[in-house]
Amino acid sequence: MDDDGQGGDPPDSLGFTAAEMYMWQAFRNGSRFDGTVGDPEIDDPHGGRPWGAERSVRARVVCLLMLDGPPALHGRVSSIKLRGIQITGTLDVAGGSVTPYVEMEGCRFENEVLLPESRFGTLRLLNCSIPRLEAARLHTEGDLHLPRCHVHRGIRLTDAHIGTDLLLNQAVVHRDRRGRSVMGDGLTVAQDLQAELMESHGEISLRGAQVGVSLSLRGSTLSNPYGSMALNAPQLTVERTLYMTPAALSNPQVTGGATPARGVRVQRFECQGGIRLNDGRFGDAVDLEKARFVMENEQEVSLRRIQVPELRFLGERPQRGKVVLSGAKVVNLVDKSTSWPGPGGLSVAGFSYENLIPSGSFPLVRRIGWVAAATPEYSPEPYEMLASVLRNSGEDADAREVLLAKQRRRRETLTVPGRIWGHVQDWTVAYGYRPGRAAVWMAFLWAVGALVFAQHQPPEIKDGESPQWNAALFALDLLLPVIDLGQSGYWRLEDQWQWLGAILVLLGWILATTVAAGASRLLRRG
Prior knowledge:
Elements: H1 18-29, E1 32-34, H2 40-43, E2 56-58, H3 59-68, E3 79-83, E4 86-88, E5 91-92, E6 97-98, E7 101-105, E8 108-109, E9 113-114, E10 119-120, E11 123-126, E12 129-130, E13 133-134, E14 139-140, E15 144-145, E16 150-151, E17 155-156, E18 161-162, E19 166-167, E20 172-174, E21 180-183, E22 188-189, E23 193-194, E24 199-201, E25 203-205, E26 210-211, E27 215-216, E28 221-223, E29 229-232, E30 237-238, E31 241-243, E32 247-248, E33 266-267, E34 270-272, E35 274-276, E36 281-282, E37 285-287, E38 292-294, E39 300-302, E40 307-313, E41 322-324, E42 329-335, E43 346-347, E44 352-358, H4 364-374, H5 380-392, H6 396-411, H7 416-429, H8 436-454, H9 471-479, H10 496-525
Parallel strand pairs: 1-3, 2-4, 3-7, 4-8, 5-9, 6-10, 7-11, 9-13, 10-14, 11-15, 12-16, 13-17, 14-18, 15-19, 16-20, 17-21, 18-22, 19-23, 20-24, 21-25, 22-26, 23-27, 24-28, 25-29, 26-30, 27-31, 28-34, 29-35, 30-36, 31-37, 34-38, 35-39, 37-40, 39-41, 40-42, 41-43, 42-44
Antiparallel strand pairs: 32-33
């Protein structure tokens, strides 16, 4: 053997075990060092069965191969490929550059894995048991794979740069001492970040993270009973779509990232705790189909000021907590009437959207109730936003109904005289949004007045100067303000007839005033 190991043989100073010798030779040959025995119970890296020396290697030797390994055999490419191996000690390549391909499957790490500020080509840790993964400012040219790994004290990827994909599918990650399962603030992933069917027991923090294609949390369960947030990702940028949708369970070893076919057994996305996506930017969509949010009263699904072409709010109605869309900008709002929380559970102040695409039945009365539930205190903007969208889509009648609902809601905030006057406007012409009512009332009052005055011709004010008596014209002259039909000024009403005339004049002015007020609102709206 060589003292320094540069000739291809392991250095004498390290006192290699038989297992480490096998690993050394496998590295030079580019083959896999497989320590499994074929018994699933014994080979389970997450089980409690002990592994002997024949399948254990020191982390120091693994680091040597990563950073300064021997040359490959002729015609071979050196690589670290381990299966069913226990790595004792602490694997520490902090600040190092690892050139060989690294793949460890079904392995156990005795201590945390330290990779801060290191550089890799591709790093694949598959179905491994890892006490903690410390990889702040890690840089990979290719993928970082951690599928089916169990990480007991959290993953740190702060300011890391992943050259292609980051895979966390079916991983089980527990919290660190700060309560975070994944710390990925400032993380950059050039392509996809897949964390499908993942279990997170703590806060996932992705503040300011950037994902070049899509971020998939299909079928995952995020739980943080130790704090308020299960997913804390303000200023997150995803160039395509954020998925919080179901995932297929038909093949638990592989998740394809597509929507499950009909009839396939699925697991829905579930979040036990709050979500914060404030100020996020999403290139295609935020998809919440069949998502379940389990929150305490003070927790939120916060989508404040997000910008996204399509928001698919198609999940299960939260029983507690709050959904906040304040300041969000959406082009298409795809939703279900059964997905939104009840009164007090929704906030939409400043929320703008251009198109409504309901999934299933979403009648107008429920849509108006949706706005009412989002405004415990009266605010005109959500009503006007909904009316504008309906009008732009050609639903003018529905838009008028929404504006009428706005006026009725506003009436509740007025003083007693204001509420009385509001009721009068509502009963007569529906605040101007149903102008046909004025014509009906006018016709009714005119008919009543004509019939009554047909039974009684009042005396002339000046004999011989009055026009020919016409009960219908006389009643209409009383009803129409301003306009003079040449009847009411020539006949004298007395006793109860005087009261009847006064009532017709008063009602005529009320109808005219309410019509004018409604017309003014319509002109301001235009």
